[in-house]
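Batch 3, record 17
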Amino acid sequence: MDWGRAKSVLIFAFLLLNLVLGYQLWSNIREGLRTSADVSDLRPETQAMMEEKKIKLSTSIPSETPALRDLTYRVKTKQLGKGVRHELKEPVDSKVVFETKELEESLGGIIPELKNYALGPVYENEFILYRMAEGRPMFDVKLELFYKNQKIIAFKQDLIELLPPQDAVSQSVLSATKVVTSLIENQLPNGAVIEEIKLGYHGQIFESDIQVSAPTWRVLLEDGGQYYMNAISGEVVTE
Amino acid sequence: MMDKLKTWVLTALVILSLIQSYLLAYSMPGLGVTTIPQQDYVPAEPMGQEEKVENVIFPEDMVLHLGKGKHTLLYPASNFYNLIFGKIKSREFKGFQRSAAVVVDWDEIRDRDQGLELRFGRGVPVELLSKVLKLEGDTTFMDDVVNRIWIYKSSDRDEVRTYFFSGDGLTVYESVKADLTAQDVQMYVGYGEYQTNYRRLGQDIYTADGPVEAMQSVVGYDSYSPEQMQRYLFFDPGVTRVISDQGGSQIYTDGKRGLQVEQNGRWINYTDPVSVQGQDDNKSQDVYAAIQFINDHGGWDGMHRFVHEGTFESVQVLRFQQYYGSFPIIPQEPFVFGSMKLRVQQGVVSEYERSLLTLQKKPKQRNVRWLPGGDMLESAFENYARKQDVTAIFPALLSVAAEKNVMKLEPVWAVRLRDGSQKTLLQAIPGGYKPGPGEPGGAPLQKANQDSVEPDSIVGSGGIARLSGGPLDGHLGG
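Prediction for the assembled complex:
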């Protein structure tokens, strides 16, 4: 038996195997590093379904899957979304909302805890800012800035206090690709256009001072429709 | 030399491939289950009894028209009710023809022709009714909701007509191929001869002419714990948080579902928002879903009747009315008891309200109480503040919290209002006293109406049934 030849063959075979494995590993790592995906990353079946239902995606799909846990917080204002509208004595230029620094300078003295809020959607007469928790928006806790003639004239704010996590355990969330796939296959109506996919916190609101929010993917449609998918269990709600 | 080098290279490659395989297998991002239940799955022991759709659909009451302006009412679970309903269930109803309700003069038929009405309160989808009765009709009929079945023997011709009334109040369906005979109807009506007579006040409201017998019971109850309920209702009980609301009641939530425990742990309100797709809703499917949901989450405590409360923006509100004996249980505020309420949307339950109490099979104590009839009941109704809103008068049991783990079920006359709420109209006569003719709550004296009394309406059995309704209908109806 020619040991030398056998070794050569084995070396060649293992080299090939290593190349294949290496490629797999590399593409996995690349996928993990990439911060967004698009339609072509969805399964072919899903893409076919999108074509059939005329569903469009006008945004990229985030690919992060961080480990998050649910939040418990105390509402300091009256009730979420039912705060008092405060008129500003001196209206402020509306473009400051787009610059965190300028916003803080102009309204920081008037609106409490302003630095905890970050800009969300922009509507015709108002800007919505969400309370941020660990860098992610809480979709139920809002600061509304009303504007007119490019001047911010009034605001309405939900003030909360985050409570220390009790025995909440962080779990890595479902990937946005899965969320979108499931929505396309089961939920979205024909002709829907997905405008935004964002990871944040959302919960059912009770008549209570203390509320609970779970990690949630929010998918916004162009026509104003919204879907909240629990990022741990994958259940969908529309309110 | 060369050989040694090859050996090294080969070893290195083998090790490298092993390492890569390991990495691939255990650190693949985006694969594998992310959900780790915090609490191991505990196969829960079943709570309560299971129920089928056939058993929760039955008429709220039966009105027997004895002819000549005489009427009587039968309530569920009474002998004659069961006898008649059992017979009707074995009959076939076919060949439904649609027509407008106004074509027939119902007031005339009500007073003149012998017949019976099965009244379903706010209505039952025909598709569900067909699980109980043998119905064969076209899709328009099957998709409709029926709130009354009227079977009568036409007095001019000796034939039986059967009408199903649509919930819209405008349409009726006549079953032209029903296998009921004139003898059947006569037999059914015959059961009513020895019952308390009822006088008709207004379109659909009947009040008893004499006292009606009822049972006051003191019943012990058991209670589920909120934790038990939580185990049934939550996806992963390990990740639920407990918060308390402004009223001091506890709320269990996992961020999506909510379970509010009210009334000191005796009542729960479970909410689980669903995604709305705005598609067409199938009423029967929702009822099946609701029944299955209750089977899986707490079960049934005795007999229940399905009540369709209404549809609000594609959400079906369904209620299951609990019975104790022949009478429904109504709550005495603030102690809530007696029915389960669900909101269902596209076959998914989004809200579930029920009591955590289950009544013990045997009452601790039972006493006869007589519900007043005659002029006393009539004047109570005439003087009722919201008389215009009353859609039905019926005997019911008022649930009153007594001592610890015991409740009292007091017979009362109750009214149902247009908005679906059920209120007490008149208490029973205290102490088990049965009013005789002429006494308050008793039947009217015979002498006063001598000329209107038909020979066959005088019943010797202790003054329960007296007086014909004929002349009274004349000036009280409408």
